[in-house]
Amino acid sequence: MLDYSEGIYTYYVYILTNKNKNVLYTGVTNDLKRRLAEHKNRLHPKSFTSRYNVYFLVYYEKFTWIELAIAREKEIKDLKREKKDAIIRAFNPDVVFLDYLFEE
After folding, report:
1. 38 lies in a domain?
2. For residue 71, is pLDDT > 70?
3. Which of 34, 72, 81, 84 is the most buried (most CB within 10 A)?
4. What's the pLDDT band for 7 if we cut at 50, 70, 90?
């Protein structure tokens, strides 16, 4: 019998910022490495992240169920800036850019 307590895929909820760390963007993806490259290379030039140069990773969470990842993304998006900053600092106290973790 199969155990369905864990999904077989990986999904990420992530928070990006810009160089000055004064803009935040929250997203969800099944391939964080690819998605970070898309943000950095401005795949969608008119998007929020392209307009505000938001492509530095400062926070991420892993999930095995897309429904849970989407719910968490919505939860984070609904938070005020101070709460988002607290989540980031609990995970990444010095708010260093984490992009290097997902580069080749």
Report:
1. yes
2. yes
3. 84
4. confident
pTM, entire model? 0.92
Query: What is the CATH classification number for the domain harbouring 89?
Result: 3.40.1440
E-assigned strand segments in the chain: 11-17, 24-29, 56-63
Select from 60, 62, 59 the least CA-distant residue to 96: 59
Distance from C-alpha of 1 to C-alpha of 23, rounded to nearest angstrom: 47
> What is the token pair recorded at 57?
């990773």
Number of domains into which the chain is organized: 1
The C-alpha atoms of residue 66 and residue 70 are separated, in whole angstroms, by: 6
Using CA atoms, how far apart are residues 95 and 67, in angstroms rounded to an integer?
28
The whole-number pLDDT of residue 20 equals 97
Helices (H) and strands (E) in the chain, counts: 4, 3
DSSP states of 53-70? T--EEEEEEEES-HHHHH
